[in-house]
Amino acid sequence: MAVRTPDPDPENSGPLDEGSFDAGSFDDGTLPGVGPGWLSDIELEQIRHRLPILYVEAVPVRVDGLGQVIEVGLLLRANAMGEMTRTVVSGRVMYGESLRDALFRHLEKDLGPMAFPQLPASPVPFMVAEYFPIPGVSQYSDDRQHAVSLAYVVPVTGTTEPRQDALELTWLSPAEACSSQVAAELEGGRGALVKAALAAVGVLP
Amino acid sequence: MAVRTPDPDPENSGPLDEGSFDAGSFDDGTLPGVGPGWLSDIELEQIRHRLPILYVEAVPVRVDGLGQVIEVGLLLRANAMGEMTRTVVSGRVMYGESLRDALFRHLEKDLGPMAFPQLPASPVPFMVAEYFPIPGVSQYSDDRQHAVSLAYVVPVTGTTEPRQDALELTWLSPAEACSSQVAAELEGGRGALVKAALAAVGVLP
Amino acid sequence: MAVRTPDPDPENSGPLDEGSFDAGSFDDGTLPGVGPGWLSDIELEQIRHRLPILYVEAVPVRVDGLGQVIEVGLLLRANAMGEMTRTVVSGRVMYGESLRDALFRHLEKDLGPMAFPQLPASPVPFMVAEYFPIPGVSQYSDDRQHAVSLAYVVPVTGTTEPRQDALELTWLSPAEACSSQVAAELEGGRGALVKAALAAVGVLP
Amino acid sequence: MAVRTPDPDPENSGPLDEGSFDAGSFDDGTLPGVGPGWLSDIELEQIRHRLPILYVEAVPVRVDGLGQVIEVGLLLRANAMGEMTRTVVSGRVMYGESLRDALFRHLEKDLGPMAFPQLPASPVPFMVAEYFPIPGVSQYSDDRQHAVSLAYVVPVTGTTEPRQDALELTWLSPAEACSSQVAAELEGGRGALVKAALAAVGVLP
Q: What's residue C16's pLDDT?
């Protein structure tokens, strides 16, 4: 059921990057009697106003030999209005897809195939972020939808090669990553998410 | 945005109890420009084969004066085939609804208005349970859908009065709650979830 | 084994407040064959340079009806040099004492008998703080000793009445509690601990 | 401050294995004005009846490419009475030593220098185990002392080579590791600790 091949046709037009959906990626034979899981853009748009959409997010980190976080990786990219924004690894969980598979797929999509992320042994996230379409309801917002995101800290041990629309993966120290300037550049209120990640691993200044 | 009034027309026909959906419960005015969040039974059935559905679950517990868990509450009820099964508090998160609101709503629905549950200060669940429509993909299964559930341990301090189709809330010791007999009676593989809850609070034998 | 009576002779001379040790508090009969657990000031001083000392700490909070943290309680007091400093509930774990008993004892000591703290169901802390005698080794320091502290977020539901040398318990909003001014007033680097507490419950701005 | 060299003179006479203490391992110059941290056997024996002693423990696991735990490693050894018992990686935290350093030191001591353990990014343990000298006070006991242990799940990626008095490191499936037979062989009540570890990573059956 793993979906680890690169997405052939990325769509990343909004704050929460869902990744493209490749209907052929699922072995439909494993889920007999249920639908194909395929969603047209129009259908997805409609569902987004009906149900909370499940996401996974990953804050990539570099660790030293004792596991201590020393750097945080943030993606830099231009949004639809040409502004430079920062974000973390983020994407939708597909029908029939496990959380681990979704996490791995989005890490590979955003960091490239040689990042060698160490997925956590525990499925429990360090934070659950609730994105509402109206700003101010919670710390996080996404004007496209109501999304609930399970967020993980993921050490990467290899070489990152940002793909798709990301221009760059920037490695920052914990102090830099939680500066007010970086927080302002993080879209959807993810400055709070990065701080929570740093706090969870004991390095928030 | 809170939806805490009792559900007037409960529907609890399956392993994961979503609660009824009362379209009028949402103040649509708070989410201008988005749809009403209303789902007919047919639409919900269709979406369940297209997207993972977000749930919250609560394992009700009694604690002593120092917070130590001394009893676990399990719901007893008859399923569609007339068999007695056990379950925990469980239900769907609605569009625009916060996790805390959903948790409170389902606790009140299943335990009554006088249970006085102490919702956790942290939104991080003790476990994320992945229910797949095909048994064996994970520890948990739900033949109606792919559901992802955020599960919490919730101390209740008042009087429980099971409502809807639940016949009884049974208080069991940790040792009883993780017996193989009780695990077999817990639907959808929730024997593992109850054990994980006991382990998380340090009382799994 | 519980030690919940108020400490008759408090000693709170340093950054980590150990509480007094009342040899008579333990029922020595429950631990036959082992020593009385009594430590003179001189012995304690010596041991502090030989072993890491185990502490528990509690960040008191007020929560709303859905468990969301709305205020954080910080203790204000004058240190040995007459400076006003802030701290959280903190104290040593005694020989033979459970973590829950120690947590309850120090909460009662610092917040009074009517605070009605809700001790967590889980014994897992939100953070483990390592206090070293040399500043800079970690985020936390204590010039008297090497201490390792298990830190918990504890909702209090009653009336607080700071005792001993604490002048006042101040309730602050999450935004106030993590301001740089408050962080500078928190002794031993506990500004980072308060931020980690807020992050753990999802309210760090 | 790291103490990662193998212990030259192991002493492992009891349920909780503290490792030997090599006074020369510490660079005393980094802690000017404080004692050498050296404890004779007699002094340690006395202190054990005066204070709770801080330990770290690690449950070694093998994970698949997605981070899912597939095997648990348990140490097999003969105790003082010649009985075969099982245990996990366990040892005392020394004065001035960080938790990460202590964890690494004991992992290397028990699994050999080629185990390549992946220490967790977060310092928060999956469980805090309280060992009392009297059985029955908690799930865990240690007739030598009152010990409080911070327990971590640690993936190992290399080759294990048990040292000291351990005869063997046995890799078991999650189902085998939580069998009642294995639980009975685990000393000090650590059957509950292994189950809690499996539950924390979502694989307790």
A: 54
Q: Among candidates A169, A170, A150, which has minimal Cα distance to A52? A: A150
Evaluate whether B34 touches A132 at the Cβ level (below 8 Å).
Answer: no
Distance from the Cα of C197 to chain B's closest Cα (Å) equals 10
Give the best residue of D39, D45, D95, D105 to mutate against chain C (max C CB count within 10 A).
D95
Domains and CATH numbers, chain C: 35-200 (3.90.79.10)
Ranges of residues in chain A whose predicted pLDDT is under 50 = 1-15, 17-36
- Residues D39-67 have pLDDT tens digits of 777 888 888 888 999 999 999 999 999 99
C125 contacts D124? CB cut-off 8 A: yes
* Chain D positions in Cβ-Cβ contact with residue B127 (cut-off 8 Å): 199, 202
Asked if B195's CB is within 8 angstroms of D199's CB, the reply is yes
Give the per-residue pLDDT at C37: 54
Q: Does residue C193 contact residue C140 with C-beta atoms inside 8 Å?
A: yes
> DSSP class of residue C28?
G
Task: Kindly provide the ipTM of the predicted complex, given to two decimals.
Answer: 0.83
Strand-pairing partners, residue A76, are A86, A168
List subunits contacting chain A, requiring 3 or more Cβ pairs under 8 Å. Answer: B, C, D
Whether the CB-CB separation of B159 and B126 falls below 8 Å is answered with no
Calpha distance A98→A93 (Å, rounded): 8
pLDDT band, very low/low/confident/very high, at B74 (cuts 50, 70, 90): very high
- Condensed to tens digits (0 to 9), the pLDDT of residues A99-118 reads 999 999 999 999 999 999 99
pTM over 0.90: no
CB proximity list for D45: less than 8 A, separation 6 or greater: none
Number of residues written out for chain D: 205
Q: How far is B10 from chain C (nearest CA, A)?
A: 23
Residue C174 DSSP SS3 = helix
The contacts of residue D65 (CB under 8 Å, 6+ apart) are A104
Check D130 against C99: CB less than 8 A apart: yes
Spatial neighbors of B201 by CB under 8 A, at least 6 apart, are B61, B68, B69, B126, B153, C121, C122, C123
